[in-house]
Every structure is written in C-alpha cells, then in structure tokens.
Amino acid sequence: MSSTTLSSTLQTGHIGLNVTDLDRSVAFYRRALGLEPMHEGTEPDRRYAFLGREGRLVITLWQQSEGSFATGTPGLHHLSFQVDSLEEVRAAEQVLRELGAEFAHDGVVPHGEGTASGGIFFTDPDGIRLEIYTPQGVDETGAEAPTKAAPTCGFF
C-alpha cells in the first residue's frame, strides 16, 4: 500500500463552522477568542466571515444551517484552543460568562486526575463544543477532574 508523503510541517489550518446567525457568531468569536474579521461575504444567500489573529486565518463561519449542533452524530467532537497560562484561561472564562455561554463544568478543570493541563469547556451560540486550555498549572489549583477514568475533553 502506498502512502502520501506530506511535508513535515503539516499542521491544522483554519476551521470551518456552519452557523445559523452569522452576525451573532462573529460577535461571539470576536469577544470570546479575540478574533478579527479578515474578509466577509455579504450576498444574502452566501454570507460568510473569515476570522483571524495577527494576519493568520483561524476560523471561517458559514451561515448555511438551521437548528443547533448535534453532538450525538458522527463528525466534529469539539474545538480546542491552547493559551499560555491559567490566568488567560480564567480571563476567557470571565468573558464567556459575560456572554452567557453554557459551560460543561464549573470553572477550570484538569484534563485528567493529577494532570497539569486543563481548562474550560463550553459551547458557542449554536451549541458547538469548545475548549480553552493551558498545558500547565491546573494541578496547582486543587480542582478535581470531572471523571477519574477518562480524559475530560473526550466526554463533555
């Protein structure tokens, strides 16, 4: 069996999300993640927005769906965003609470029992599951992992 040879710099590119209300989602991701609009499509039946940071595209939003995100079907599980410190996770949590985001757990929780990494787990306005985490420092908070036998980010 042959395999494709890919560059050693292979990494995740931008993330594309279907949303029900583009204006609401742009406002949410701008405030929650500090993303800025890079380009927008304004035709009534083809609305979209490219959001990024420091010239790098991070998320594309496509207004082409109805209802809310279905967590019980195959496909996207969640999106995770890494920050450098526990303080940044807590600052994001405060902003998300002001936005009325729904959280899966109360406050910052570790990824697993005794791990240093952890974060907050919440949903966007369309119910898409999101995570903001830090790789260190959560073990020093005394917070307990929501489940003892499985990674927190896998079951929320």
Could you say which overall geometry the principal axes of the C-alpha atoms support?
A: globular
Strand share of the residues?
A: 25-35%
Instruction: Count every helix, treating DSSP H or I runs of 4 or more residues as helices.
Output: 2
Q: Output the helix-strand order.
A: EHEEEEHEEE
The largest sheet, given as strand count, sense and whether it forms a barrel, is: 4 strands, mixed
Reading side by side through the largest sheet, how are the strands ordered?
1-4-3-2
Rg: 17 Å
Q: Report the structural category.
A: alpha/beta
The overall pLDDT, averaged over residues, is 94
Question: pLDDT under 50 segments (min length 5)?
Answer: none
The overall strand count is: 8
Distance between the termini: 37 Å
Helix content: 10-25%
